[in-house]
Specification:
This protein has 523 residues and is mostly beta strands. The protein is built from one helix and 42 strands.
C-alpha cells in the first residue's frame, strides 16, 4: 500500500536541506541558558533571540539571514525583571522588547536605544499584570502596528486579546474581554504566532503539537476557528516552547527547552502547517525493510527485507516518485542471511548485498536492472578481518573502490578493487575513518557523485552526519562537518540520493516504510 503524506521528524544535511538545528546550550553554558523558552527574530533575519526560564534573554547574529546554522552567540544577554522568563517579542522596528514572566504574571517592556541591540536594552518601568486572565503565562504576540497584544498560557488554556490605547505602550493595554478557548485542540499552550495579515493563528504545545486556526475577522481572536489542522513534530523535538515564522511563511522555527535546540523547518506551502515537510511515504513488501537502491533514471526501485531475506523490485510510473511505485512481482531470495543493504553497479549488470554476518555477495544480471535475471556469481568477500558487523555498503561509480561501515568498531573502511566491480579482487586499503564520536551504530553510508562528501546515518545517536573529503573518494582525507548533524528517523536503515541531489530517500524498519524528502533549494 502506498500513501502520500507529509513526513515529520526527518531531515537532510548540506547547504539547503530541509531541517537544520543548533544547540543553544553549547554557546551559553556559562550563562546558564539551559532551558530556552521564547524565540524571536529581527525583521531582516540577521538576529535571533531566545529567553531562558531563569532570568536572561540572549542574542545571536546570523551571517546568512534566516538560516540558524550560520548563527553565532554574540555574548549579549539581558537580565529580566522576572526570574522565570518565558515568551518574548519585539516592536516592528526593534526599538522595544517585551518579555513575559511567569513568576510575577506580568509582561515587561524594555526600550532599546539601538534597534535590535540587546546591549542597549533598558527596562522602561512599564509592565502589565495579566494574572486576572492567566496565572501561568507563556507566550506573547503583537499586531504589527502595536495596537493589539495577545497572550497565552497554561493557566487558562486560552489566547487573550488586549487593546493598546497608544501603540506599543504597555501602560495603555486593556483586556478586550476577547479570548478563544483552545482546550478543544489540546492543553498547555506555550507560544503563539499570527500570519502578518491576522487571518491565521498558530499555537504550540508541550506535547510537540502545533495547531492552526483561521480567524473570520482578522486580528480578532473571538472569531478564531480551529482548522482541524495540526502537526506533530515529536520526531524532531522533545518539548517545544517557542514558535516563529519567516516573513514569507516558508520557514517555521521552534525552540525545544529539553534538548536546548532551535529547529528550522521548511513548509511546502507558505503559512500552512498541513504541508509541513515536502515528503512522501510508502509501505514496501515484507515486514522489515532494510536496504534501498534506485535505477539511475528513477524508474525502478529495490528494497531488501531482513526477515525473509528477499530483495524486491518496483516499477515507478513517475520517475523518482515513490508514490507511483508498483511492486512488479519480481523477488529474489539471496545468498545472504539477514539483509542489511544493497548496491548496484552503475550499469545495473551487477548487484551486491551485505548480510548481517560478515559477507558481501555479488550477483550478475543478464538483463541490466532486472532482478528476475539475477544469478549469484559464487563471488563473495568475508570481511571479518576488518569488520565483524558490517552494515553500510557503497561503491565508487567506476567500481574501483568499495566502502564498508561497521557497527561494532565504529569504523568506515575503504577497499580497492584491482578489477572494477569484481569482489574477488577487493583488498583492504588500510584506510578507514572512525566516527564513534558521532554515534556508534552506522546504518548506511552514501557519497556525493563527485566523491567530495560522504553521508552516514547513525541509529544510536539518531543523527545524520556529513564528512568532507579533500581528495575525492579517499577516506584518509575525510573530516567531519561538525555543523552538519541533523536528526533522522531513529529506525533509519538506508539512505539514497537522487543524482542531482534534489531528493533524499530513507528506509525505516520500525514503521516498515520508505520515505521521500525534497531538499529545500534544489527544487
Amino acid at each position: 500500500m502506498i500513501n502520500a503524506m507529509m513526513i515529520s521528524g526527518r531531515g537532510g544535511i548540506e547547504g539547503a536541506w530541509i531541517l537544520r538545528n543548533f544547540s543553544t546550550g553549547q554557546e551559553e553554558t556559562s550563562t546558564a541558558n539551559v532551558d530556552p523558552s521564547g524565540l524571536y527574530f529581527s525583521t531582516d533575519g540577521t538576529k535571533m533571540y531566545t529567553s531562558d526560564q531563569q532570568d536572561y534573554i540572549y542574542q545571536y547574529d546570523l551571517s546568512t539571514p534566516w538560516d540558524i546554522i550560520t548563527s553565532s552567540y554574540n555574548s549579549v544577554n539581558v537580565s529580566t525583571q522576572d526570574s522565570t522568563a518565558q515568551g518574548l517579542t519585539f516592536s516592528a522596528d526593534g526599538s522595544k522588547m517585551y518579555e513575559i514572566g511567569q513568576n510575577q504574571d506580568k509582561i515587561y517592556q524594555y526600550d532599546l536605544s539601538t534597534d535590535w541591540d540587546l546591549s542597549t536594552a533598558d527596562y522602561a518601568t512599564n509592565s502589565v499584570n495579566i494574572n486576572t486572565q492567566d496565572a501561568t503565562p507563556r507566550g506573547v504576540f503583537f499586531k504589527p502596528d502595536g495596537s493589539r497584544m495577545y497572550e497565552t498560557g497554561t493557566g487558562g488554556d486560552k489566547v487573550y486579546q488586549y487593546d493598546l490605547g497608544t501603540n506599543w505602550d504597555l501602560s495603555t493595554a486593556d483586556y478586550a474581554t476577547d479570548s478563544v478557548n483552545i482546550v478543544c485542540a489540546t492543553t498547555d499552550p506555550q507560544d503563539l504566532f499570527f500570519k502578518p495579515d491576522g487571518s491565521r493563528m498558530w499555537t504550540v504545545h508541550t506535547n510537540d503539537l502545533i495547531y492552526q486556526y483561521d480567524l473570520g475577522t482578522n486580528w480578532d481572536v473571538s472569531t478564531a476557528d480551529y482548522a482541524t489542522n495540526s502537526v506533530n513534530i515529536d520526531g524532531i523535538t522533545d518539548n517545544i516552547t517557542g514558535l516563529f515564522f519567516s516573513p514569507d511563511g516558508f520557514i517555521l522555527y521552534t525552540v525545544d527547552t529539553t534538548n536546548e535546540m532551535v529547529y528550522q523547518i521548511y513548509l511546502k506551502t507558505p503559512w500552512d502547517i498541513e504541508y509541513f515537510y515536502p515528503g512522501m511515504e510508502m509501505d514496501p513488501e515484507g515486514t522489515n525493510v532494510q536496504g534501498l537502491w534506485f535505477k539511475p533514471d528513477g524508474t525502478r526501485m529495490y528494497s531488501t527485507d531482513m526477515d525473509d531475506d528477499n530483495i524486491y523490485q518496483y516499477d515507478l510510473s513517475t520517475a523518482w516518485d515513490i508514490t507511483s511505485a508498483v511492486y512488479n512481482s519480481v523477488t529474489i531470495s539471496t545468498a545472504a542471511g539477514g539483509h542489511q543493504n544493497i548496491v548496484f553497479s552503475t550499469d545495473g549488470s551487477k548487484m551486491y548485498s551485505i548480510d548481517k554476518g560478515d559477507y558481501i555477495y555479488q550477483y550478475d544480471l543478464s538483463t541490466n536492472w532486472d532482478l528476475s535475471t539475477a544469478d549469484y556469481a559464487t563471488n563473495s568477500v568475508k570481511l571479518s578481518t576488518e569488520s565483524s558487523e558490517p552494515n553500510g555498503l557503497f561503491f565508487k561509480p567506476d567500481g574501483s573502490r568499495m566502502y564498508i561501515s561497521d557497527t561494532l568498531s565504529d569504523l568506515i573502511y575503504q577497499y580497492d578493487l584491482s578489477t572494477d566491480w569484481d569482489l574477488s579482487t577487493a583488498d583492504y586499503a588500510t584506510n578507514s575513518v572512525n566516527k564513534a564520536t558521532q554515534g556508534t551504530f552506522t546504518q548506511q553510508i552514501f557519497f556525493k557523485p563527485d566523491g567530495l562528501i560522504m553521508y552516514e546515518a547513525d541509529s544510536a545517536s539518531d543523527m545524520m552526519h556529513q564528512w568532507t573529503l579533500s581528495t575525492p573518494w579517499d577516506l584518509s582525507t575525510a573530516s567531519i562537518d561538525t555543523e552538519s548533524a541533523v536528526p533522522v528517523d531513529n529506525a533509519i536503515q538506508s539512505l539514497f540520493f537522487k543524482p542531482d541531489g534534489s531528493v533524499m530517500y530513507q528506509s525505516d524498519n520500525l514503521n516498515n516504510k520508505i520515505y521521500q524528502l525534497k531538499i529545500r533549494g534544489k527544487e
